[in-house]
Each structure stands twice: as C-alpha cells, then as structure tokens.
Design a protein that fits this description.
single chain, alpha+beta, Immunoglobulin-like, Protein-Tyrosine Phosphatase, Chain A, 3 domains, 6-stranded mixed sheet, 5-stranded mixed sheet, 10 helices, globular, disordered N terminus
Length: 521
C-alpha cells in the first residue's frame, strides 16, 4: 500500500523534472521571395509644363486700336486671359490643346481715346507655367480739352460756319438757278481767307492739302480738379437729354476732363462723372444747346454726317431728331472701335449703303440692320431704275420705314454722302413736307466737308484747285427736284414726292402714312 502511494507521488515529480522542451523554430524558407506581393509600378513622372514665347513679350499697341498675334509653344493645354477691359480675347481663342507646331492666337484691343497712356497684361497659362505679354498703348494725341463747358451754360451745337449759312440764307421754291453757299467761309470756293475766316487777298484758300472741317459739330469739355478724383479708379460718364436719350462711357483713372460732341441743337442735357466702385460723384451738372443742324462725326474719319431732324414743315410740324441720318461712307476704313461705339451710342440701329459694289455686303458693326441695293448713280436715274429686287426708290424707302417701325434709326450713305445720298435726302425731307427751298439748303451743307466728301479725290489729277460744284443749281438737285415738282397734282412738293412713291416706285399708302407719323411732331 505504501509502495503504491509512493509511486503515485513519484510519477508527477518525474513528469515535472523531465527534459525541457525545445522551442519549435520553423525552417527558413529556401526561397526568400516566396509569398511577397509585387509592388505597384511607379508612374512615369509627368513632363514639366513649359511655355516658349515665339513672339515678343512686350507689344507697342496702336493708339487707334488693332490686334496683335501671340505666337508660342507649349506641351500642356493652355488658356489666355486678361483683366483689362480694353483687351479683347475671342472666345474661340481663349483656350486650346498643345501642338507640335507654334500656336498662333490673334487678340484685339480697343483704341485709346484718353489723355493717359495705358498698359495691359495678357496671361498665358499652361499647367503650372505662365507667361505674361504686356501691351503698352500711348495716350490719344487728340485727347485734349475742347472749349470748356460750364455748368448751366448754353452752347452752340452746330458748327458756326454751317450755322451762319443756314441762318442767313433763304432760298425760294421752284428756283434753283443760283446758289449762295460759295459765298461762305468753310468750303472749297477758291477764295482766300485770314485766320478769322474773313476774305483776305493775302490769306489762304482751302486746297487739296488744306482741308475744311466745318462738317464736324462743335465739341466741348467738361472738366474737374485732381482733388475731385477717387484715386486712380476708373470713372463712368453719363450724358442724357430731354428726349430720353442716354449715353455712358468709361473714363480712364486720372482723367481730368471728358469731351462731348454730336449734340442735338435746342436740347437740354444733364451729365455726371461717378467713380467706379466707390460711387463718389466727381462732377455733375447740366447745359443747354442752340443751333439749326444736328451734325455727327464718328471716329476716326466718318465725315459729312448729319441728322435729318429739326427742319420745319409747311404745315407747322417739325422733323424728329435721331431718326434718320445721312453722311459719307461708313466702313472699317473710316470707323475705328471707338467710332463703332459712338454709332451705337448715338442710337443708330440700321445702315443703308447706297454704293454699287459686290464687296459691300455687311454693316460697319454687326449690331446694325443692313441693306445695300447696289446703286450706280444718283439723280432721277436712281429713282426710276432698279434691280431684280425692284425699284431702287421703293427698296430704300421700305427699308427705312421697316427699320423705324422696329425703332432702329437709319444712317444712309454712298461714298461721298453727296449724290446718291442727296437724292434720297430730297425724297425723304420732301415727303415729310419740308419746304423745297429749305431742302436745297440741307443739300448744300455738303459744301463744308473735306476732299473725298464735298469734292471727289478723283478730280485732283486734272484740277489744281478744288471747287465745290454740286450746288443746288447743278447735277442732282436740278435733276431730282424738277422731276418731283412735275408729278405734283396739287402744286406742293410733298405731293409730287408722294405721287412718285405711289405711281412710279410702287410704295403703299400705309408705308407713306406710317413714315410721316413716325417722323413728325
């Protein structure tokens, strides 16, 4: 029994005192790469974006506006931007993809009409690369103050030489055998004058190199002091008149004046100059105008322009202003970007081009309604001929009426604004009831325009001294006016024009009536 007990005690002790067990260590893997996951391949580093300018990074911009070609190379998608309002980047040219060859993008810029030079920045961006092109534009050499305009003053809107002619001359009806316009200073009459516009044998005559400019209206300058400015902030100039017309333009920071022109006579204007952003009033005021003719000039050389408004009729009414305009050629060669803005600011909404050319198939600015019937010459021929679209007189008149119905004032012109333009002018004023003798004065105002308008430049080779010959007793006037008189059935000029439109041109009575209702007050 004791042995069994001893044995039972001994066995656990032997188990406890047995040899220590070894720690099991796994055999090393004979393949060290076994079980490892291949790492993701590292992407190739993207090439560094670059922009290499091929064209200059500094551009001398033309003061009259224009365009410049940006030429560059890049390996990234690119964009072109500018914070300057006068720099114009077409939408289709504002961005693009890289190319193996040089990228060429044309941007435009407005003309500078301020007395302050300016600098614009164009930013080209491709990835993280950027290049800046600087446009430096000089100040406008013509941006000088005109005659100062005082708050509350009354000024003459019409050029004084034209005003003198319109005030002092009265022509009779049915007698176009003489003219008086050549007796007045301001046009090509062969006479010599001193600096005061007085006849003087020792003076100087207008010639091919010494041009008259009385076709341009008066200009006046609204001025303010440097202390009135709001730093270098741009300013907004607003001009309104009693008829509800309104014009706004942006003035460069630091400007100390703004010139106003193309003023309607016998009108009341109010103006203000407000600092952009802060709203500070730099200056404000009002003025009145006098005169007989609303002349217009659009930069940089749209000449011989004037409104048909202001003329009295034989039945006591008056032709409305800012409805119909006549003048010289209105095209890209005579109208720069500022001129285009002036045309739209004036309120003109349509262009009637009376010239005969296949190239003249679009308006000077795309906002204008447009018609170009293609007329070879003025006078009675223009009234009695036509093309596949009908009689020229009918086409022109119906275009005018339809544009006025749509509240689109019309500017009509040929090349000089003299013969074809004068023919349509006689028709329109005559239909409205303006006295025929007054129509001849309106016709002869072209005398005050320079070469290329009053006198054709084609006459220079055979004529050492230009003389205005298209007076009321010559060519168009003495051709058209007798024709209208011959058609009259009640001995009034207006009736003769109406009979032409109804019986010869084929215009409807409704168009005639609507035209008079829209044009007279």
């Amino acid at each position: 029994m004791k042995k069994l007990l001893l044995l039972s005690l001994l066995i656990p002790m032997l188990a406890y005192c047995g040899p220590a067990q070894k720690e099991v260590v796994p055999d090393p893997d004979p393949d060290p790469e076994h079980g490892k996951v291949d790492p993701e391949p590292k992407p190739e580093p993207e090439p560094e974006a670059f922009i290499e300018m091929v064209s200059k990074e500094s551009v001398d911009a033309d003061v009259n506006g224009g365009s410049t070609l940006l030429r560059f190379k890049t390996n990234y998608p690119w964009t072109i931007t500018s914070e300057n309002k006068w720099v114009i980047i077409p939408v289709e040219s504002a961005s693009g993809e890289p190319a193996e060859n040089t990228i060429a993008i044309r941007i435009k810029y407005d003309d500078n009409t301020s007395p302050v030079a300016r600098e614009g920045k164009v930013l080209i961006t491709a990835g993280k690369a950027q290049k800046t092109v600087t446009l430096r534009q000089p100040k406008d050499p013509l941006a000088v103050p005109a005659t100062p305009l005082e708050n509350g003053s009354t000024v003459l809107a019409t050029n004084p030489n034209v005003e003198k002619f319109l005030t002092e001359v009265t022509y009779p009806d049915k007698d176009w055998s003489y003219t008086e316009v050549l007796n007045f200073y301001g046009g090509f009459n062969g006479k010599t004058y001193n600096e005061y516009g007085e006849e003087d044998p020792a003076g100087k005559a207008f010639d091919w190199d010494n041009q008259p400019n009385s076709d341009q209206p008066m200009s006046y300058s609204i001025n303010w002091k440097e202390s009135d400015l709001d730093g270098d902030n741009e300013m907004v100039f607003t001009l309104t008149d009693k008829y509800g017309w309104k014009m706004q333009s942006t003035l460069a920071g630091g400007s100390l004046f703004v010139n106003v022109s193309n003023l309607v006579p016998n009108d009341q204007y109010t103006y203000s100059v407000i600092a952009d952003g802060s709203g500070k009033v730099v200056t404000e005021g009002s003025f009145n105008t006098t005169g007989h003719l609303h002349q217009v000039f659009f930069r940089s050389g749209c000449r011989n322009g004037r409104d048909l408004g202001g003329w009295p009729t034989v039945d006591g009414k008056t032709v409305k202003f800012r409805k119909l305009y006549r003048g010289g050629r209105m095209q890209s060669e005579t109208v720069n970007p500022t001129g285009a803005r002036q045309i739209l600011a004036e309120g003109i909404g349509a262009q009637l081009d009376l010239r005969n050319s296949d190239k003249l198939n679009k308006p000077v600015t795309p906002e204008l309604a447009f018609l170009a019937p293609g007329i070879e010459e003025g006078g009675k021929w223009m009234l009695t001929h036509g093309n596949t679209d009908g009689n020229f007189g009918k086409q022109c008149f119906e275009f005018v009426v339809n544009c006025l119905r749509e509240n689109k004032p019309v500017y009509f012109h040929c090349s000089l604004g003299r013969d074809r333009t004068g023919t349509l002018d006689i028709l329109l004023l005559g239909l409205l009831g303006v006295r025929e003798g007054d129509i001849s004065k309106a016709y002869e105002v072209t005398y005050f325009a320079p070469v290329g308008y009053s006198v054709s430049s084609s006459e220079k080779s055979g004529n050492p001294k230009p003389i205005f010959r298209n007076t009321r007793k010559e060519w168009v006037y003495s051709d058209v006016v007798p024709y209208f008189w011959s058609l009259s059935t009640n001995d009034t000029f207006a009736n003769g024009v109406e009979r032409y439109l109804l019986d010869v041109a084929g215009v409807s009575q409704k168009d005639i009536d609507d035209f008079r209702n829209m044009m007279l007050e």
